[in-house]
Amino acid sequence: MVSSELERLQRRARRAYEWGRLRAALPGALHAVGVTVMAAVLQHRLKPSVLMLGALLVLLCLGLGWWGRQWNRAVAPGLVAGLFPLLLPFVVSGAGHVCYTGGCRAFCLMSCVGGGLAAGAVLAFAALRLPEGHERFLLASGTVATLCGALGCVLYGLSGVLGLVAGLALVSMPVLVLRRA
């Protein structure tokens, strides 16, 4: 076989391999698009912060899915766990609580923290079921859950997102310590 034919065949095989990885990553990215659209619909308008966070979430899910293996396994649990902090602020607002005035902002912030705690618990239980790779799984799924939950907690500004991160880390990080002990 001539060298140029071999190189062409190798390029073709590499391109097919990369397209296959991309196709495997698309379901997680499409779910992230759906979550972003849901957050925009719940907010009754498309805010730039939701659009930016949604784009980051889609790119992260696409990248983790393309990377494959343990990284790809973290996408679905991260999206499911991220639904808690995403939806809880809307449930609080839908129950008649107005979260845009100064006096009750603390209660709404606590809904983001509570959503983060629930997300951390979901990810902790999922990580405990894995035979190996707990650190990578918690890093990837926690990042996906944070971006997903931030789509709802961004209503309350940076404090809502930081409350989400604090709640998620408070519950999920001790899993790493317990697994090593």
How would you describe the overall organization of this protein?
This protein has 181 residues and is mainly alpha-helical. The chain is 84% helix and 0% strand. It contains 7 helices and no strands. The protein starts with a helix and ends with a helix.
Please tell me what the overall shape is. flat
**Helical stretch count?**
7
Radius of gyration: 19 Å
Q: Which residues form runs of ≥5 with pLDDT under 50?
A: none
Tell me the distance between the termini: 57 Å
The amount of beta strand, in percent, is under 5%
- Mean pLDDT reading: 86
Backbone structural class? mainly alpha
What can be said about the biggest beta sheet?
A: none
Helical amount: over 70%
Number of strands: 0
Can you write the helix and strand succession as a string? Answer: HHHHHHH
Characteristics:
single chain, 181 residues, mainly alpha, 7 helices, flat
How would you concisely characterize the structure shown here?
With 181 residues, the protein is an all-alpha fold.
Topology:
Blueprint (H helix, E strand, L loop, with lengths): L2 H40 L5 H20 L1 H5 L1 H20 L10 H24 L5 H20 L4 H23 L1
